[in-house]
Design brief:
CATH superfamily: MutS, connector domain
Strand content: 35-45%
Oligomer: single chain
Helix content: 10-25%
Strand order of the largest sheet: 3-2-1-4-5
Largest sheet: 5 strands, mixed
CATH topology: Nucleotidyltransferase, domain 5
Number of helices: 2
CATH class: Alpha Beta
Shape: globular
Length: 86
């Protein structure tokens, strides 16, 4: 149970990034629809899930434990690339 995850997208298509903080393994997935996203989150059961702060309140993903809202720029490509390379 050492997985952290971040999700970005809309109701039709999501990107999910998952990292095992123990091993450093990192993977990304493209997932269609809320139902499939929620099923994948249930399967991997991350201890922390990061979502954009500009998403509406009360989304299905927020019912999970460990949900943290992050500033929208944390999900922008250039910002994410810079953070990953530091």
């Amino acid at each position: 149970d050492n997985l952290i995850a971040a999700v970005l997208g809309d109701e039709r298509l999501f990107g999910l990034a998952v990292m095992d903080i123990t091993s450093g393994n990192f993977s990304v997935l493209e997932i269609k629809g809320w139902e499939n996203l929620l099923a994948e989150l249930e399967r991997i059961n991350p201890v922390e899930l990061m979502i954009p702060d500009d998403w509406p309140q009360g989304l299905p993903a927020e019912k999970r434990r460990g949900v943290r809202r992050r500033a929208p720029w944390d999900f922008e490509r250039d910002s994410a690339f810079k953070s990953l390379c530091q």
